[in-house]
Amino acid sequence: MTDSELLQYCMAKPGAEQSVHSDWKATQIKVADVLFAMVKIVEERPAVSLKTSPELAELLRNEHKDVRPSKHLNKAHWSTVYLDGTLPASQIYYLVDASYQQAIATLPDEKRKLLPL
């Protein structure tokens, strides 16, 4: 999977907005100002940081060498997944969907109702 393919998938989510975090040289994808994905190059490899439950984050990290704690985000919840690694694209898309759903769940009702869900 390429970073372009992943960005395209993220931006197809209702309400998704893209910005650049210049300090981290990363593309942030947010919904209503809540981060759900951050795409960047890590150790010269394309990667995405995604939010999960702490339990799922630990499980993924133990089972896949291409899933690591995110450097600049809460390490209990955020994992960096290498896009060119052993994790299948279908699982990466699932993790994007789950991260997006977590972001949506944190929104106040009035903001959530404005999204075309």
Tell me what the structure shows.
The structure is a single chain. This protein has one domain (3-108): Alpha-Beta Complex (Aspartate Aminotransferase, domain 1), CATH 3.90.1150. The chain is globular. The mean pLDDT is 95. It is α+β, with helices and mostly antiparallel strands and 117 residues long. It is built from 4 helices and 6 strands. This is MmcQ/YjbR family DNA-binding protein. It comes from Superficieibacter electus. Pfam families: YjbR (PF04237).
Helical content, roughly?
A: 25-40%
Largest sheet report? 6 strands, antiparallel
Continuous helix count: 4
Query: Tally of extended strands?
Result: 6
Oligomer: single chain
Distance between the termini: 26 Å
The CATH topology assignment is Aspartate Aminotransferase, domain 1
Notable characteristics:
alpha+beta, globular, 117 residues, 4 helices, 31% strand, Aspartate Aminotransferase, domain 1
Secondary structure layout plus pairing:
Blueprint lengths: L2 H9 L4 E6 L4 E6 L2 E9 L2 E7 L2 H10 L3 E3 L8 E5 L6 H18 L2 H5 L4
Antiparallel strand pairs: 1-2, 2-3, 3-4, 4-6, 5-6
Short summary:
It holds the Pfam family YjbR. This protein is an alpha+beta fold. The protein has four helices and six strands, in the order αββββαββαα.
